Design the sequence.
């Protein structure tokens, strides 16, 4: 494995300026930290800088609090926000689903086998159907039914679970309810949704049926952050599969399942490895 | 090679009904024709049948005229339109371009090396720039400049070349002028255009810049038949390539060139091998 | 869905000769069967013919036994072996595994959600580890430990399960034991194995470590029929994923899991839909 | 474009040790150079460090000679070899071909349209066939015929052209002659070859025919550095395409052409952008 139990990650972003990389790397050197892999990018249009560094402290007594204390001032000078991720850290996650389970099943499998750096705190659904599957994995399942009238109360319930579990990330693994504008605001930048089309193509409902009607030769899926504009949030990952004249709309739905779960798993994996940066309505994704 | 100099192709379509395959295959057997490869498909929604058959006459004296005479009555019973393509047939083609030459260069190369079953009769452009390239390949180049005022005269010139050369197919290899509705009607179903996006996403001008603004992680191209509704014609082929945050709009333009020329070449190749069927606003493409 | 509860499939192969397609299609017409999709191919080197036809009887009283009775003579004339598959038929399958469960989990999920036309009769393993997973899916689990000394007895146990369950197909979903030559013979053509490399590259043990040592930029997986020559059986499906310098051998193992399960699921799905034909050491796969 | 006419590139490698990134970045900061994009990687098995940095001097009077003078000492302390590449630099290249021109044509096209940062100094062939194509692009063509007896003299001629043109890189664009061990040594690490298989699978002659015989479902190409062991040099890029039972060996040859030229162009492009690092028998490729 490229990362071991001594590998820390520091990620940061700030306005473009001279010395942005150096502020991180010179500090790491001073702290006797060896850099195993580093990627930086400067968006020339947005004039914004991004960096992700995997490093290994060369002293046994590496002290994260002292590291932060020392680095805070330097970061402040550059207007830099940063995040320090410790070895083996797993992102606390709440997953939301409805009845369809192909994305959920995939995330649960990767979670169970330790191949995704997430810690699933709870699964929330507006239907009772998937409790059995979730329980088998030893995870809490919250069934919060919802109608047009009870939406705000239900979203309050959801929000409470997110708060109480300390979830950093919410994953909408085919949750088929439209979230209120207020909920979208609360979740902006901390919730990843899977949409079953290559956004911005085929926004809205039944994208595979739209795709069939257009006679496309490719279908795809988009994993994106939630923002206030439904189906328009910043894109993290997109994948496609080939289809033919012989695939009716229902076949596209079937074929799409593999693409959806692979795309969502990829986005969540990138997020959990601190490879995703959000700014304006865009993402930087430092892939392997 | 799967096809040799004795391989004929018969393609046909008609309304769905009992005996559609048999009408073709029993006739082929009666004519002592061996079927090397066959593909048929019935669109259950449109209730329409499609078939493509590669066959090899087992008698030396195979007579295409007699074959047609014999088959016409049977086809008529089924409301079947069909086409018989002789061994080594090359589709007479007129290519239209503007200044950008990546698609043209690719088609010329495949044509020159005999890897595309087309016979390029002429290249038409609204700019003089690409004459040198076309002349080197020994092909006629028509420079027909156009302004808003002269569009109908210029399209008349184009149409005349199409007529005089006997072109069956017009290939718009990045021809950057909008065609009149009248011209679109004339070319409907017999002209293939390459659009530099995954239609119906990013219709209209500057699709790569639209794609950049949306922060997509994939760009693509679409080869489609021309119809009256610009950028909405029946899709023949679509391909994609991966892009990252590090690709600015100009980089997408650069990356897109390979996808565009591969997608267009694929569509033209499928057409030339009689693998493409057009109906309603869709295509059937029997790929290898 | 392209197939409904009235869609039968007939598949056949025989030596190349005049009238091979007609023998099938004229009989179907005579039986008042409508052909929804058909694909035939003639291997010119092997001089062997293959056909797959989806058809829908237009009479309510379609009688499969009578169909077979009627067709047997015609097939015999052509030296044609054929198979008639009824609507909704699911292939009886026995799955064999060791400790690794990514392929098994994937097959169980597709089976549970009805997306794979197989009927899993039993799972056999040389380890007890995966019983919990299999039991949760309500399927029998046979733990047959094996040592070099007990191989023939253990294979006898396996064979007995295959016989008793009436399994048509055995799927080796990362079964990490070498089968005896005798067992390979018994399973030849009726067992699909997943090998974690692009065969014939990286045969034998630890293919990802071999791949890492060679510094490849792609890894892949191969689903193939078992035959007597280990890792040399006829290939059904192959898929790849991109890797980089940053992926160590263990990372390749991780990345490979998705490719392995998608490749195996694809091969099993093609088999179950009667799209795979075996001859000499090759396959014909009529994909959608 | 991500790079403009003020973008310099520094690339370096050295043994793994504390401070490897800092030695580069702190110097760049001291020289008032802004880092636009940076990628570093440490191979933990080989204990070797690699870095590629795109930077923009913020002072008008940036002096490359002074930069080198200043950096040499620091680099020496780390045992670091480095390369400084100026804005707009094009790698001087000699291309070698035989009769097949699909890779050559592709490289010439990209060169002509300015999409590949190479400066083609000459094309060398053991056949006269491609002179016309090369001359049309205004480039020198050397026809050096070769027989088993004249190999060493011919290779001497080649080497002289490489020397005289100051070529940094030799591209073997389907040069179908085996090079002598001596020539391989001379070209080791500075010549890129395209092999028409997914090495190490199907080494040696006629790889597509080998692939056909094995019944593979994917074919591919490998661009690799030349070393003394033919077909075993360090891999830079690999790509694949799907094939079916319907593709005979000759069809694989045809299909492979697109993959070959895309793979070779990708490798040459990565090299020209200073994204490729060679060590032991491996490469690091920092892709976009």
Sequence:
């Amino acid at each position: 494995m490229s990362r071991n139990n001594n590998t820390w990650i520091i990620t940061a972003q700030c306005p473009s300026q001279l010395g942005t990389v150096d502020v991180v790397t010179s500090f790491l050197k001073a702290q006797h930290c060896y850099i195993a892999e580093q990627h930086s990018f400067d968006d020339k249009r947005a004039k914004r800088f991004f960096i992700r560094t995997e490093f290994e402290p060369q002293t046994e007594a590496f002290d994260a609090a002292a590291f932060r204390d020392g680095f805070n001032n330097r970061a402040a000078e550059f207007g830099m926000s940063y995040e320090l991720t410790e070895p083996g850290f797993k992102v606390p996650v709440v997953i939301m689903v409805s009845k369809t389970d192909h994305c959920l099943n995939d995330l649960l499998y990767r979670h169970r086998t330790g191949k995704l750096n997430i810690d699933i705190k709870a699964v929330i659904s507006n239907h009772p159907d998937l409790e059995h599957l979730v329980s088998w994995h030893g995870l809490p399942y919250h069934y919060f039914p919802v109608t047009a009238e009870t939406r705000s109360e239900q979203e309050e319930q959801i929000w409470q679970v997110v708060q109480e579990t300390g979830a950093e990330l919410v994953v909408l693994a085919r949750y088929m309810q439209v979230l209120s504008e207020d909920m979208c605001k609360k979740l902006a930048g901390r919730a990843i949704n899977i949409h079953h089309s290559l956004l911005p193509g085929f926004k809205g409902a039944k994208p595979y049926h739209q795709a069939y009607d257009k006679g496309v030769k490719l279908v795809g899926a988009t994993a994106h952050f939630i923002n206030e504009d439904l189906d328009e949030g910043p894109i993290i990952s997109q994948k496609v599969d080939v289809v033919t004249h012989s695939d009716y709309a229902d076949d596209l739905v079937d074929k799409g399942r593999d693409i959806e779960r692979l795309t969502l798993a990829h986005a969540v994996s990138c997020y959990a490895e601190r490879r995703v940066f959000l700014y304006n309505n865009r993402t930087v994704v430092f892939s392997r």
About this structure: Chain C is about 35% helix and 30% strand. Chain C has two domains: 8-85, 92-285. The interface with chain A takes residues 1-2, 37, 101-102, 105, 109, 113, 115, 136, 244, 246-248, 250-251, 254, 257-258, 262, 288 of chain C (CB under 8 Å).
